[in-house]
Specification:
single chain; alpha+beta; Helix Hairpins; D-amino Acid Aminotransferase, Chain A, domain 1; OB fold (Dihydrolipoamide Acetyltransferase, E2P); 5 domains; 5-stranded antiparallel beta sheet; 37% helix; globular
């Protein structure tokens, strides 16, 4: 390859790498596998080594990947968080050792697993958690302190009050938590994360810290960035110190005096990786002595005293025998491939999700194909590519009608999924019943998920209106019910008939319509008939609504089944009009509040109800139109943005003063 050809190829590689890097690091939505990305970067590095005059400062090989999100406050890293040079063979490990020994004598190495997660830096002052930030571009990261406080593995207080310490670690999602999250996302018909690493990154960047708390993230620390009050001379000594302070330190690290011992340790970690409860994507080899590290120094992107060995992915071939289509609780049609049994990562695989029609088209899947399979994160089976088609292969198409109820399925704009929107679809029945009875909808006390499931299993309830036909003898004979419980449940069902219109609208489970949107509809149209007759333009004109939400409402009520559902509820005596309460005090009229952080005594929904009672509105984001930000403890980027925009900020005490 001559210089001109190399320049063209380098430009093309940089463009591809930049795109896929952004999808992986900044958007948590990778489009190619790690090994394919590694191949691109390896080719770029080899070409730049061959033609060093073509290296530019903005090349991927010369800087840390990642960008700083505008959703969180920026944090400048006192000690930069750099990347490691990847190697892919034992010979490259030996080449690394040779380069090290050219500069320092008798190096010792620490070998540790490379945890596959999101890199962060956490600072403690006087032994207390002070702040945590993502790596970002290595120099500036995102302040995610509020979310990090939700991770149980991160100590809020150290066992020994060191004056000041900054540690670097990897936030990861355990395999068990990832598998549970994928099941939940598939059931709910939402976006499904591809692997634990992107799940961890996507979770840590959530604006709602309660999401972080329930997803079971964890942490391993692997580096001491800075410490005051301790004398540390080596990496192994720093790991021991961090463990003594109460940090969860990267597991089963070993010390090696020779490169052969180091390679043996890399092999041993590779043998363990399948059985681990967390993901690793390699092993890291580091020079142990800090003085030797200083001698070795760093390039503009990588330290010369460490490399990361990347394990090759395991792939095996099998045959796609069938595609089964299931309907999730939100109506999403999910295709699942049925394969000849194949052993991957220690378990036998016969089934794997095929996600949606886009995925099937991208892979070119036909029933009878021989395909290459792997496990994403060594957990979730997935098809990587088609190896060969049969002679009579026909591209597979998902059905145009729901396999559960026969209703036509739709594909909404900007969505990949096909969806059944029939509210009477049997596959969605249980989810619809649970939602209808929930606290924020019809608030039927005593009708939780377990009781709903029992009623469905006993064939006492099929549709939500069947709840209003239940009788005491039917209930009192059920397991763990009894006469008193049956009476209480029937009383709660009867009381729900008097609920305000917005609760009924929300209880119908219209896609994209939450409790707040249901209130806006009820306030605007006053009756169920008016809501059902409203056009997309009329609904979209409501402040707080958008085109997609409006279209979802109109699509729902365009179905004959929806009309029947509403009519049957009306016949049961369920209220279908808004119970507007005329407020004599509209002190917050024309004001928009944003609530952030944890308030001392009020829950956010309680504060929001008070604001609405006095004519005000609440919003989930801060803008120039925001009147007041009500901030509690651990208020995050909303508070920062309010300060930048000069929006009035109050605490709970000031809020109570406004209510007097």
């Amino acid at each position: 390859m001559d210089r001109q050809e190399a320049a063209r190829r380098i430009d093309a590689l940089r463009e591809q790498i930049e795109y896929h890097s952004r999808r992986y690091y900044d958007e948590d939505a990778p489009e190619i596998e790690d090994d394919a990305f590694d191949a691109l970067t390896r080719e770029l590095r080899q070409l730049e080594e061959q033609f060093p005059e073509l290296i530019t400062p903005d090349s991927y090989t010369q800087r840390v990947h990642g960008q700083v999100s505008k959703l969180f406050a920026p944090v400048t890293h006192e000690v930069p968080l750099g990347s490691l040079q990847d190697v892919f063979s034992e010979q490259e490990i030996r080449d690394f050792d040779r380069r090290v020994r050219e500069s320092v004598a008798s190096p010792r190495y620490v070998i540790e697993p490379k945890i596959d997660g999101l890199s962060i830096a956490i600072e403690y002052r006087d032994g207390v958690f002070y702040r945590g930030a993502t790596r970002g571009d290595g120099l500036t990261g995102e302040d995610v302190s509020v979310n990090l406080r939700q991770i149980a593995a991160i100590p809020q207080k150290l066992s020994d009050p060191v004056d000041r310490i900054i540690v670097r670690g990897e936030v990861y999602m355990p395999r068990e938590s990832f598998a549970a999250l994928v099941r939940e996302q598939e059931e709910q018909g939402g976006k499904v994360f591809k692997n634990p690493r992107n799940s961890a990154a996507g979770t840590l960047r959530q604006k709602d810290s309660s999401v972080v708390a329930k997803r079971g993230l964890s942490l391993f620390v692997f580096n001491m960035q800075l410490v005051e009050g301790e004398e540390i001379a080596s990496h192994s000594q720093s790991l021991e110190c961090m463990a003594r302070l109460g940090f969860p330190v990267v597991p089963f690290y070993t010390l090696a005096d020779t490169i052969d011992e180091a390679i043996d340790a890399v092999r041993e970690i590779g043998q363990k990786r399948i059985g681990l409860p967390f993901d690793i994507d390699g092993a890291v080899i580091k020079v142990n002595d800090f003085t030797q590290r200083e001698t070795l120094g760093s390039t503009s992107k990588f330290p010369r005293w460490a490399v990361a060995f990347k394990y090759p992915p395991e792939e095996k071939e099998t045959v796609l025998r069938d595609i089964e289509v299931a309907v999730g609780r939100t109506g999403v049609l999910t295709p699942t491939g049925v394969f000849d049994p194949v052993i991957l990562a220690g378990t036998t695989v016969t089934r794997a999700t095929l996600h949606n029609q886009n995925f099937i088209d991208e892979k070119g899947l036909c029933i009878g194909d021989t395909v290459a399979m792997r496990k994403a994160g060594d957990i979730i089976p997935e098809v990587v590519r088609v190896v060969k088609h049969t002679p009579d292969a026909t591209p597979y198409r998902l059905p145009s009608v729901c396999p559960s109820c026969g209703a036509a399925v739709i594909r909404e704009e900007d969505e990949a999924d096909l969806r059944c929107v029939n509210p009477s679809c049997p596959a969605q029945r249980l989810r619809n019943l649970i939602h209808f009875a929930s606290k924020d909808a019809m608030d039927i006390d005593g009708l939780g998920p377990a009781v709903v499931e029992l009623l469905v299993d006993c064939d006492l309830v099929r549709e939500v209106y069947d709840l209003y036909s239940l009788e005491k003898p039917q209930l009192s004979g059920l397991e763990r019910m009894g006469d008193k419980s049956a009476e209480n449940l029937l009383a709660a069902i009867e009381a729900s008939k008097q609920n305000d219109l917005y609760r009924v609208i929300y209880g119908l489970g219209i896609r994209h319509i939450g409790e707040k949107a249901a209130k806006l509809l009820a306030d605007r149209f006053s009756s169920m008939e008016a809501v059902m007759d409203a056009s997309v333009e009329e609904i979209a004109a409501i402040d707080g609504f958008g085109e997609i939400m409006a279209q979802s409402v109109v699509s729902f009520f365009s179905l004959e089944q929806s009309h029947e559902l509403v009519e049957r509820l009306r016949e049961c005596g369920v209220n279908m009009t808004a119970q507007k309460q005329e407020s004599t005090d509209d002190r917050f009229a024309g004001m928009t509040f944003v609530l952030t952080g944890t308030l001392p005594t009020l829950k956010r929904n309680e504060a929001a109800a008070m604001i609405e009672q006095y004519g005000g509105k609440t919003s989930g984001s801060v803008s120039a139109k925001t009147s007041v930000v009500l901030a509690g403890e651990d208020a995050g980027s909303k508070l920062t943005k309010a300060q930048q925009l000069g929006v009035r900020i109050i605490d709970e005490a000031e809020f109570f003063e406004m209510l007097k």
